[in-house]
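anyone else get weird line breaks when pasting these?? whatever heres mine. first is seq + tokens for prot A
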Amino acid sequence: LTEELFHSAKLASVGQLAAGVAHQINNPLSAISGRTQMRLGGAPPDEGFLREQLGKIRADCARIAETVHDLLGFARKQRTVKQAVDVHAVLDGTIDMEAHEALKHKVAVERRYGTGIPLLVARESHLRQLFANLMANAFDAMAGGGTLTITTRARPLGVEIAFADTGAGIRPEDLAHLFEPFFTTKPPGQGTGLGLAVAKRIVELHGGTLDVVTTVGVGTTFTVWLPAGPL
């Protein structure tokens, strides 16, 4: 039984990452497809515009390669390579990447960034995935639209990033299972139940914490604390 549980946990771990990065891979693929269709369907572009689009396609391909590399790294338990990261730059990039989803869900995203925020010691691609997962969870919680407020604050030895939505909130009976792999309150076929499990795992890999405060009918706030300091 112990061996079966070990293998189940290992498979679940790989599955968590695979589902979590699927969305991150889909976005650059969609961008590549859109730019290619625009090039094929329009008039011949001038050289400057063509170079610009090819540069963006190359960047999108690099993002896909990086994501796949991270997937292999998680599966093989490789050491997470970290560097100094500007959390606001990563947040801004993720918000831009998720802009279409925010529009589709009729959600306004407000940025309330603090001052004096230190650099994080993290893997940038992991942070993008973490923030994207928390944003996607917030969008799903606001079925009729709403506001997602992202706040950053400098804290002792690190940075606090809060994602506060005006959604339905989380029922007490669901709260205890929130970060369990494959747990979801969505109807069958509408959710894998892996987004928050992946988010928590990324936070833990970076030596941080992920907390949640929720009120049914009012909204939910997920607060991430991540360490800052020398590499």
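and prot B, same format (seq, then tokens)
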Amino acid sequence: MKKRKIGPVRMAIRVVLTVVSLYVALQVFRAYNNVYSTEVVIAATMNEGFRAQGVACFPSANIEGSGNIGYLVQNGERVSSGAQVGEIYADPAQAYCREELNDLENKISLLERSQNVNGTDLSVLTSQMQAALYDLLDAMDTGRYQQMKEGEQSYLLAANRMQVSTGQSVDFSAAMSALQSRREEVLAQLGSPDGVYAPAGGYFISGESARYLNCDEDTLQQASPGQLQRMLQDGVETTGSYVGKIITNYHWNYYGVCTLEQADKLEQLSKVTICFPGKAEDPLPAQLVSVDRNEENDIAKFCLKCEYIGADVLCLGQQEIEIELNSHSGLRVPAAAMHIVDDAKGVYVKYGNLAKFRKIEPVYQNEEYILVPDKSKMNAEQAAATQSEVKLYDEVIVQGKGLFNNKLLSS
């Protein structure tokens, strides 16, 4: 059998393909072994603080009652003593009647307000529709369902007013008349359920949202750090068979435990900012009332006083707290990017195709980031006093092997 000869053209093609394959493999190998990931330096503010366990204690009066309860006021709404806050349904059908009645009254109110245009400019109405739509989408995206309902009402109000202003709808009299007729029918079906009344004036919280404690505030005040810690470990909440609670004062206290180091930082400030992760995220101002230290067990008990009331806050009981002590501003660099070269702290910055070492002077640091001075915000004397060399928008190398000053990053 004769061997098949490979022509010069085919040989050349094979050589070229082999060279290309080797080149691609080499580049893949080099890329795999020389991965450089970067992060851009930005101006930022970082909060210094800590998290602690504790319990929110509100002065309150429980609302007695049982059965199939329907609420007539919203959580966080202020009511006077003796005001009706709910009703007890003898028949489940009454609950559906009340729900439909509330829906009908909201629609009637919306149509009444929709006719009150008062010469509003179309551009204003368009802006109102857009703003309401954005608020609705934002509430939907963040799962704030109560705000979704409010956003829907705001959008419909602006859209209805636009119809009136542009002549698409002269008025809503016919629709309102039909709704009012239906409301009278539902009222007759609802009848007269037994009422539930507030035992005192204050802020309402429903039974299904309220948190009940198995101890009073005197017990929390008198507890030692160790006792409070054990109470929290065992749990200070209990189940309650109440219709709800009335928070009788907007002043309330939070009792918590922390380490002695955290207590030292807390005692340096008379006022702090707090929030409750996953429950009440908005920052609230609070005042330090007391710190009780237990040196032997390295724990301290603290009491914070707050004067803010809202529906989200009223739902608190035993709850983790986040305490913000101080805020620091500067340029933010990743903590993972820091290196120590010749006893100097610094980071490597991507400068063109080179890695350049830049010194840093940390202003504040947590597990993820380091804040360094921003020389562009300083006067000449302040800028000369700091050795930090990182600038805004520098590309800091977070990940890379064998870094050194003036290293060629790729060829």
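btw re prot B: The chain has a mean pLDDT of 84. The chain is about 35% helix and 35% strand.
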